[in-house]
Amino acid sequence: MKINIAKPVMGPEEKQAVMEVLDSGIITQGPRVKKFEDGFAAMCGVKHAIATTSGTTALHIALLAHGIGPGDEVITSAFTFIASSNSVLFVGARPVFVDIDPNTFNLDPAQIEAAITPETKAIIPVHLFGLMCEMDAIMAIAKKHNLIVIEDACQAHDATCKGKKAGSFGTGTFSFYPTKNMTAGEGGMITADDDQIDELCRVIRNHGMRRRYYHDMLGYNFRMSDIHAAIGLVQLGRLAGYNQSRQAHAAFLDANLKGVVTPSVPEGLEHVYHQYTIRIPDGKRDALAAYLNEQGIGTMIYYPVPIHKQTFYQEEYGYDQHLPETEKAADEVLSLPVHPLVTDDEMAHIVKSVNHFMGA
Ligand SMILES: *Cc1c(COP(=O)(O)O)cnc(C)c1O
Q: In sequence order, what DSSP letters do the residues of 127-155 get, joined into one string?
């Protein structure tokens, strides 16, 4: 038995969809990208969706479209994939890290206001592992201080907070990297209700071009191809089913794991379990991971080094902050497989193995 921590579901529909694009003669950004954007916007309940090459470029474009640049500060989490804050560096602004709530692994809204300075322009709440941040509190702070909100929803496709979708509170950013809840091979998406932000994102995505070969601003080639969009469209149709499968696996682990701290989901939030992440205190995490590996169970530490502790952030950007909950989480977390291809027998094997190791 070998249970991978992540495995994209790729069926005959994806293959057929790709073949149709290859046969159509339109391979670059074309009708499938448009259809994928429309479908994604509808899923999120927003007016616009703009497809990009990755979650990273979605964040990059969103920051540029909101006019964030040198001299600006952007509040975000250090307990996330590095793209959440690297995108801030790309535009010449400075990421300001706020500690997490240890129960949710997400930005602690109670600590955000203390980090706001006259330079603060935006907050990037990261909906880590498929659980949204407490957006009511974050939107209230943003409104009070006139800050832009760019949601990093790269792990939270179709997650909700009080019934409202990830990517529909601020400007949203999503990734379609193969390990995510849905994939397009690679790819990303920006979601927005604001017409002006939508237009700017499209222009920045395509070399600052509104009229062919007349360039109004510095832009990039961050366009998605129709090949990727064709895969994304098939996967978008299956997203709800994938997420239900992840939730069923998570519920089984919640009910049966012993001796470890299972994920907690605050009232009003719907978790889509991009990762099912447990905490193992007392320094036993690495030994448990090694034992599970021997049992054929793939695990992963998301994330072993918080961003403010990455060498180049310290050496090149001068970060020397202490974020106690972020650092503690990095030492204690372990993610277990809950993707849609894990079988019931495999789920039972995961439970038995964890409980055996923990002596429970
Ligand atoms: C995956 C991910 C990204 C970046 O997405 P890519 O498509 O890999 O560029 C950004 N933020 C978070 C939280 C992610 O998990």
A: -GGG----HHHHHHHHHHHT-EEEEE-TT
